[in-house]
């Protein structure tokens, strides 16, 4: 099912919609809270399929995988989720008040996955969960120069980068203040299956 994502032409429409979600909704929202004009985002979202009777991923924090401290997780189910077909997380680092996300189709959640433990349990429901998850990092939380970025998490590799458009709309094709992609990442094994073989 996910193999078409390894082909650039086949994944183009998904990436177009994904980038629109990040540029038009996620980046402006995060920027309004943090106050930044630069945002990094995972170049390819992770696509998760959690079928009945399957176990997905054990308890972890993303810092275990060297993701940066300022990393914010975005979780977008493409199906309704509410119990064992969901993601479980704690409300703050170390709180251990684990609860499943209860989201309907079209809703998404953000959380501090760098240090909030999250995991999935065995799916005991009769419903398959299909979801996208990805990380965004406010620019001030990440080195601007590629030689200062960890090799596995560089702009142009794991991350794409967006900046606020400056000047008149005609200069960049974007309205002033809108986010636009300044550097695009590429599929990478850290993006998970099916890119693990790349």
Please give the number of β-strands.
10
Percent of residues in helices: 10-25%
Task: Specify the CATH class.
Answer: Mainly Beta
What is the count of structural domains?
1
Based on secondary structure, the structural category is: alpha+beta
Organism: Chrysochromulina tobinii
Protein name: Fe2OG dioxygenase domain-containing protein
Detail the topology: elements first, then pairings:
Elements: H1 8-34, E1 38-42, E2 46-50, E3 72-77, E4 88-89, E5 99-100, E6 109-111, E7 118-119, E8 129-138, E9 159-164, H2 169-172, E10 179-183
Antiparallel strand pairs: 1-8, 1-9, 2-8, 3-6, 3-8, 4-5, 4-7, 9-10
Could you explain how this protein is built, in words?
The two termini are 17 Å apart. The chain has helices spanning 8-34, 169-172, and strands at 38-42, 46-50, 72-77, 88-89, 99-100, 109-111, 118-119, 129-138, 159-164, 179-183. The chain has a single domain (3-197), classed as Jelly Rolls (Sandwich), CATH 2.60.120. Helix content is 16%, strand content 23%. This is Fe2OG dioxygenase domain-containing protein. It comes from Chrysochromulina tobinii.
